[in-house]
Design goal:
It is built from eight helices and two strands. By secondary structure, it is mostly helical. It has one domain: dinb family like domain (Four Helix Bundle (Hemerythrin (Met), subunit A)), CATH 1.20.120.450. It has a two-stranded antiparallel ribbon with strand order 1-2.
Length: 173
Amino acid sequence: MEKQQQPQQPGFLEEVRKLNGEVELSDALRLSLNEIDRLDVAQLKRIGLKTYQEGKWSVHKILQHLNDWERIWCYRAVLFARKEGSVPVGHDQELMGLHSNADDLSIDHLLAELRFTRQSTIMMFDSFTEDMLQTSCQFFEYEMPLDMLGFAITAHQIHHFQVIKARYFPLAD
């Protein structure tokens, strides 16, 4: 009989650590909230629904994507923190983006929603004990400690904000 493979830490965790730097989770979450407030809203509004390449998402859809995935990761974090026992299923971000109504929502709405979502995330992670934060979270073929879900949320935002600034901000001119 073949020996079952042990779940491995996902490769993307190195990028998550790199994007967050050497900060505590609570600091990373609070810094990411500040970054939402630092976005140039007027420039985002000038970009409108333009994309830098055909087939790419608008800034509206990127912001909705950040909201959707933060909620998904928080749901997963609650499952693990409460030792619910199930392994969360995967989700199709392209399908979710296709069926979002993000392009019908204002930048102001999407950013306000992201702020509220992040504030809720901060409160949830602040409520977890150190033991909960070190709970092993198993997904399909990999596992990681629960606190890395919080760092994944902030790294995800850092990544997409870098893309917005590099590829979308020039479209506002």
